[in-house]
Amino acid sequence: MVITLPPPSKLHLKLSDLLPTVVPRRSRSEPPPDLLSLRSSALKLILTYLLTTPTPLVLRRDASTPASYRTDLKISVLLVNRRLYHLALPILYGANTFTTSSAATSYDFDAHLLATPGRLRAMIKSVELTIDWGDMLWAKMPLVAAKLLELKGLKSLKLHIVGGGEVESGKAIRTGVTRRGRAEREGLMAVAMLKAEKKVLRELVEGLKGLRVFELKGFVDGGFARNLEEWIARGRKG
Fold first, then answer.
1. pTM above the 0.85 mark?
2. Does the structure show a pLDDT above 90 at 207?
3. Residues 6 or more apart from 236 whose CB is under 8 A from it?
């Protein structure tokens, strides 16, 4: 398998960085050094270029994942040999952000995590979820939160809560996703739901001890959301 290296300017490498510490002499009959002769530090830079994207990755396909969904990641590099496989996995899972296909299927993120082997879940450092606030799907947030709490390596968590109209206008509800009943938010019911949701969110953020970045956008109580965000930004002080 031949891997075309990107321009050096993109990797910020010097020629000396790409060579082994000691370059043995070889006869003319010996093949030239290949990619696998590079030091692990240089290989990791190359793998980062091949296996990371600024766009969140769908952790697992679901009912709203388009059949055409593709990434530009060079996943096949994991199949080259055992050394590259073990170097590449922490980069693939630890340097990317994971999400679901739509706000309507974020309630399944706990199942997506369960279906991911534990050693791979442990590598995940960044999650970004858009959640349909007005739908009863939000009622499953405690289960999602419980699974998020198991991601001991999680450093960044971004939650964007949207209303049903916003979801539909964004075409998040695709073929195969059934619309659920809407939860009424009036009177004492609204107060009780808000109290329960704040409890789930607070316990989630407090329980993720390694969290360094937290965003909560679109929450009905903006002051509560800002306080949680700022608490994490201050290093859990104050």
1. no
2. yes
3. none
